[in-house]
Design goal:
Elements lengths: L3 E5 L2 H19 L7 E5 L3 H4 L9 H17 L4 E3 L6 H7 L7 E2 L1 H11 L4 E5 L2 H5 L2 H7 L4 E3 L3 H13 L8 H15 L5 E4 L17 E3 H14 L2
Helix pairs in contact: 1-10, 3-4, 5-7, 5-10
């Protein structure tokens, strides 16, 4: 089995991805067997400094991710991934400099959406992801239309991520708000909701969403497991 290198940004997202790799590995392989996984994280502020104060520097954020990948490579990881959607704005700028084969979270989600024959999906995430281009690029490459919420909705969805989910707070009113937004875009023709922030699956899933969900964290973990078990 290949050695998985996991780059963490937020603790909740990294933990969810790691746990999924281990649990799904044991289901597939039996017993207590799963691929070797190494997780490296800088403190989140090392990334946040490039997003704060109105000065967004995606390339520097991407370079910080490369530092993590270099550490993972030095201890034997065969490939790398990062369960954080927002930082992939930086990844797209430095991808040719990443020193290991790299699983891109948006490409993984887009491939699965294509397999389900979705034509139109709702993208949820931080304001950077909802107003950025990472999912638009990946989805358009496979012929899928992306829909994003209104500015008012983006502001509240983003607030919930930063003020609540990143700290492990799960507020019933916030869960209801996500459900309300998903309901609205279901009626506008969306066929699935991309959970394009690795913390959103902590409160939204197929059981409480009116649309099928594309859980970016889980899908990335499953793709990593496939890659680790491939020849």
């Amino acid at each position: 089995m290949k050695h998985i290198g996991l780059v963490g940004c937020s603790a909740e997202g990294a933990a969810l991805c790691y746990r999924t790799i281990v649990e799904e590995g044991r289901i597939r392989l039996g017993g207590f067997v799963h691929p070797e996984v190494t997780l490296h994280t800088f403190n989140l502020q090392d990334y946040m400094q490039y997003l704060a104060g109105g000065r967004v520097d995606w390339e520097e954020g991407g370079k910080k991710l490369i530092e993590s990948v270099e550490k993972l490579k030095s201890i034997g990881a065969d490939f790398a991934l990062c369960p954080d959607n927002t930082i992939h704005h930086g990844v797209d700028l430095v991808r040719d400099r990443i020193p290991l084969p790299y699983l891109h979270i948006c490409d993984v989600v887009a491939d699965v959406a294509k397999q389900h024959n979705y034509a139109k999906v709702l993208v949820l995430g931080t304001r950077f992801t909802m107003r950025g281009t990472i999912y638009q690029r990946a989805m358009s490459a496979v012929g899928i239309e992306c829909v994003t919420p209104t500015d008012e909705e983006v502001a509240e969805l983003d607030r919930i991520v930063w003020e609540e989910l990143l700290s492990g707070k799960f507020v019933p009113q916030s869960i209801a708000y996500y459900q309300q937004v998903i309901d609205r875009y279901k009626h506008e023709g969306c066929q699935a909701a991309v959970l394009g922030c690795t913390e959103i699956p902590l409160i939204i899933n197929d059981d409480n969403s009116s649309l099928p969900t594309l859980d970016s964290t889980r899908l990335l973990a499953l793709a990593a497991l496939d890659m680790a078990l491939s020849d």
